[in-house]
Amino acid sequence: MNVIEAVKTRISTRAFLEKPVSEDQVREILEIARWAPSGGNLQPWRVHVVMGAGRDRLVETVKKAIAENPLANESELAIYPPKLGEPWRTRRFELGEAMYELLGIPREDKPARIQQLMRNYEFFGAPVGLFFSLDRQFDKGQWAHLGMFMQTIALAAAEKGLATCMQEAWAARARTVSEFLGLAGNEQLYCGMALGYADPGAKVNALRAARAGVDEFTTFVTD
Fold first, then answer.
1. Given this model, what pLDDT does residue 1 score?
2. Separation CA 42–CA 112 (nearest Å)
3. Can you list the pairs that 134-141 forms with residues at least 24 positions away whose Cβ atoms lie under 8 Å?
4. What's the rounded Cα separation, in Å, for the pair 146 and 218?
5. Closest by CA position to 168, among listed 192, 132, 188
6. What pLDDT is recorded for position 78?
7. How far is the C-alpha of 43 from the C-alpha of 36, rounded, in Å?
8. Is pTM, for the whole model, over 0.90?
9. With CB atoms 3.0 to 4.6 Å apart as the test, which of 30, 104, 161, 178 could cross-link to 183 if both were Cys?
10. What would be the CATH architecture of the domain defined by 3-217?
């Protein structure tokens, strides 16, 4: 698989096989991703990998926290603006509706929709989870660098036959996850990422988000 194929075929995988991924495989992907660009070569990212018993303990810890206080929001970051404008609000809505339609979950079935949302906190069944954080001194530039690093991980994983899902949902339980991982006070958690082998038979993995055409987001200045 070349880079163009990886970019065009990568999706947010939301169902994984119960097929193990070794530490060596994860290290190989991170070895590739460490060459991602960053301004001033700061390489500001920090990664915590959970797998095996550690992954299972994290999942149970977060499930317990959700059961004790299901409405808690521990996020320090606004994943979306509180008043999301257009066309972004419609894009987000249409993606959600397309996913639930694939799963056969109607809008009125709130319990089923919540159950699907909770799958985030099981990494959608993936055997490996990665969490990303930055030192609190960093600003928007370094957050952009972190995004480039995460994209590089996703593309490297695709070349190796693995699938990923970048999961901002973990931000809602940032305090619980940070405490579990032992993050220092100067580290701010951003999100998680599921890593494993995609389940080819899962309906949800047929979801392909629409993309705007080049002329919708590009201005060419030629004179």
1. 82
2. 43
3. 134/44, 134/45, 134/46, 134/187, 134/188, 134/190, 135/44, 135/46, 135/186, 135/187, 135/188, 136/186, 136/187, 136/188, 137/186, 138/44, 141/39
4. 24
5. 192
6. 87
7. 8
8. yes
9. 178
10. 3-Layer(aba) Sandwich (3.40)
pLDDT tens figures, 134-175: 999 999 999 999 999 999 999 999 999 999 999 999 999 999
List beta partners, residue 48. Answer: 131
